[in-house]
Every structure is written in structure tokens, then in C-alpha cells.
Design brief:
The radius of gyration is 25 Å and the shape is elongated. It has a six-stranded mixed sheet, with helices on both faces. It has a four-stranded antiparallel sheet with strand order 2-1-4-5, with helices on one face. A four-stranded antiparallel sheet has the order 11-18-13-16. The longest helix has 18 residues, at about 195-210. By secondary structure, the chain is of the alpha+beta class. A hairpin with a 7-residue loop joins strand 14 (about 305-310) and strand 15 (about 315-320). It has eleven helices and 18 strands. Helix content is about 30%, strand content about 25%. The protein binds adenosine-3',5'-cyclic-monophosphate. Adenosine-3',5'-cyclic-monophosphate (CMP) binds near residues 307, 319 and 328.
């Protein structure tokens, strides 16, 4: 996909997501500071979030993700460009009207801002009181949402008696209680252990399925990438990729489980995944022939291959590689011909990177580079 096209992808390609976008970001710029100190933090961003969509935004810290999130949340004023949220043009709203928009959004921020003198239950009730809930329904809903987040036994505890993860879950309960149509979350699972993090994203999925809500999550947590319908990557204030995931999430998840790729951060993982192609080989097929020039790196997704050095000669060497192993790195690193023949033992599915993608990945990640060189030296 061409870099310039990525922002043009329409979320309407999802058959299960209908209706106009809940968020429409159009050529959005944003600046901090004034005069000579003016610094552009967002540059020409375009994005649509459809009803029922879970969008995960990744990117290095300082890349502008949180600024974009707070603009969408009507917590900052738009300076340049268009921004429609929940059917309202934020550029045309007065401050009191912006407050109304904010009320319809569920916010989950890193600093949870709970009222310390109120119990978990009272904190959630208080957020519901801003909306027209009938008192008994309100109490039942507060209890229900806290229980869904595994806080049923802690509902009368005050924040000081709760762990960091529990406080975060109260904040999440508070944001979800009113069944908002749009939820904006900044690192919602960062303080949670794996089980609680999973519970939270499952709850997000439930909301999406049952209420058609949209969720926009800024995160570094690659354990939750699999729930995304769309992964947006922001670098230096600009959205540089915006991809529908089905295939790519599966690939990211797979990459994160392979030793060589496991330490890559989500943004990098997404970038590498975007450059990979899937190739399929029949049993007996020569994927690589010893002595030929090399232009590709292979990562085995499924199946076994034989690596054969000097086939048929005295001193022939054989080794079997399996799912998660990679090959074809030597010729790319040294520029020399392929040092072995690699043959499919059974049907093999591999993800491949061309030379440019391989070099880019090596240049961008020291840990990836180290893993590749480690294998390279071990195979000498
Ligand atoms: P390359 O030389 O580009 O092409 C053949 C590939 O086979 C090589 O990169 C390695 O990835 C792999 N290979 C070569 N020798 C060994 C070995 N001794 N053990 C495992 N893999 C090897």
C-alpha cells in the first residue's frame, strides 16, 4: 500500500459497521506554543472511526497520539482542519456545547482522577448522575459494571485501599457505565496484569457488539492488538499507516511470539508486518537454492523445511527448521550467494521480507538486529 493512500482507506469496508463515522478527522493540524516557539505537533491528519470499530493507535511517545485523542475528546480546541465527533462539528461549537459532547464520551486516562473520599461504587454512581438515570437503575448499573470488571468484592472500598490496577478498573467502570457511544482510552491496560487487561478488552468488545460503540485506544500494549479492527500508527505528528487488521493482527501476534521479533515494539511490529508477504510452498519445493543470489528473508508461519548445505557431497549438512524459525538472512547480510538449499518438507507457509524491508527492519531495531546476527553467527 502506498504511504499516501493509507489515510484514504475507508472504514466503510467493514461489512458489520454501518452508519456515518462517529469520528471524522480531516486535514487536522495542531500547534503548541506561539510566535517563534510555535511547534507543530500534528500535521495533516485524516482518520475515520466507524460505529462498532475498535481502533488502536500506536506510535512512539511524543508522536502526537495523546494530542489527537484530546482533540477528538473535545478537551482542546481545534486550531486548523476539520473534526466531527458524534455527528457534531467541533470547530463550530461553543464551550458549553463542547461540554455536552464530552458528556457523551467515555474517557479512560492514565491518571485515573478518582475521588479519594468516595468508594468505587460512589465514584461510578457519580459519573452516572450526570446523565438522566433513574436512581434504582443507576445503582444496579454501577454494581453491574464494577462486577464485570472483577471488582464486585471491592465496590465499597475507597481508592486508597485499592491497588493501582484496581483503581484503573474503577476508572474504566466509570467511563463505561453510561454506555457511551464513543470511548477514548489512553493506555487503558498499562497498569493491569495480563488477566485484568484481557477482561478489559473483552468488555470493550462486548460494548462494541452490543451497543455499536466505537473505541479509540492509544497504547503500547501489544497484548491487546488482537482486538483492533484497525491499527493506526503515528510518527512525528502524522498518521503514517492506517490498516484494517484481520490478516495483519494475526501476523503481528505471530511475530510477537517469534524470538527474533518478540522484543519489537508494537509500532515497529506493525511496520514490519505491513512489509511482509505471505508465500506458500508445496512439499519438495526448493525455496532457496545454494549458490544463487539472495533477495529475500523468510519466516516460517507453518510447516517444516530442510536446510541442506552441499547436498550430495561428502560432508553434507542437514538441519530442520520449524514454525517461528527464519532463514535466508545470510545472503542479505553478506551479499554472498545462498549458503544452503532450503526445501519444503511439507506444505509450508512463510512470511517474506524483501531486501529493502529487511534492511529497514534491521536499521530500525537493535534487538531485531541482534537476534538476526546471533543466528547468523551460530550458523557459521
Ligand atoms: P542464506 O545463505 O541467505 O540462504 C540459505 C539459508 O539457510 C541461510 O541464509 C541460513 O538462513 C540458512 N542456513 C545456512 N546454514 C545453516 C545452518 N547451519 N543452520 C541453520 N540454518 C542455516
Amino acid at each position: 500500500m502506498d504511504r499516501d493512500d493509507v489515510n484514504q482507506l475507508s472504514a466503510g469496508q467493514f461489512p458489520h459497521h454501518s452508519g456515518p463515522p462517529l469520528v471524522r478527522v480531516n486535514r487536522l493540524n495542531h500547534y503548541f506554543g506561539e510566535g517563534e516557539a510555535r511547534n507543530q505537533v500534528l500535521t495533516d491528519n485524516n482518520l475515520e472511526v466507524m460505529p462498532g470499530e475498535i481502533v488502536i493507535m500506536t506510535g512512539p511517545s511524543g508522536s502526537g497520539k495523546t494530542t489527537l485523542l484530546t482533540l477528538i475528546g473535545a478537551l482542546r480546541s481545534v486550531q486548523e482542519g476539520g473534526l466531527d465527533v458524534l455527528g457534531r462539528d467541533l470547530t463550530k461549537l461553543s464551550p458549553p456545547e463542547l461540554v455536552e459532547v464530552r458528556r457523551d464520551i467515555g474517557f479512560i486516562f492514565q491518571a485515573h482522577n478518582l475521588f479519594s473520599s468516595l468508594s468505587a461504587y460512589q465514584n461510578v454512581c457519580m459519573s452516572l448522575q450526570q446523565h438522566a438515570w433513574d436512581p434504582s437503575a443507576l445503582k444496579a448499573r454501577a454494581e453491574e459494571v464494577l462486577t464485570m470488571l472483577d471488582l464486585g468484592h471491592r465496590i465499597h472500598y475507597k481508592p486508597a485501599s485499592l491497588s493501582g490496577g484496581q483503581k484503573q478498573r474503577v476508572a474504566i467502570a466509570r467511563a463505561l457505565a453510561n454506555r457511551p457511544k464513543l470511548i477514548l482510552a489512553d493506555e487503558p491496560t498499562a497498569a493491569l496484569d495480563e488477566k485484568s487487561g484481557r477482561r478489559v478488552v473483552e468488555l470493550f468488545q462486548k460494548l462494541v457488539r452490543e451497543d455499536g460503540a466505537s473505541i479509540f485506544i492509544v497504547t503500547h500494549d501489544n497484548r491487546i492488538l488482537d482486538v483492533a479492527d484497525r491499527i493506526v500508527n503515528m510518527v512525528g505528528g502524522k498518521i503514517i499507516s492506517n490498516i484494517l487488521v484481520e490478516e495483519s493482527v494475526a501476523l503481528c501476534l505471530f511475530l510477537s511470539k517469534c524470538e527474533a521479533f518478540s522484543s519489537l515494539r508494537p509500532a515497529m511490529l506493525t511496520k514490519v508486518a505491513e512489509q511482509m508477504r505471505k508465500e506458500v510452498f508445496q512439499p519438495g519445493a526448493n525455496i532457496i537454492r545454494q549458490g544463487e543470489a539472495g533477495d529475500r528473508f523468510y519466516l516460517i508461519r507453518r510447516g517444516l523445511v530442510d536446510v541442506i548445505v552441499d547436498e550430495g557431497k561428502p560432508g553434507e549438512f542437514r538441519k530442520i527448521l520449524k514454525e517461528g524459525d527464519f532463514f535466508g538472512e545470510k545472503a542479505l547480510l553478506t551479499g554472498e550467494p545462498r549458503s544452503a538449499t532450503v526445501r519444503a518438507r511439507e506444505p509450508v507457509e512463510a512470511y517474506t521480507l524483501d531486501k529493502a524491508g529487511f534492511n529497514e527492519s534491521i536499521a530500525a531495531s537493535d534487538s531485531f538486529k541482534q537476534q538476526i546476527y546471533k543466528a547468523y553467527f551460530q550458523r557459521q
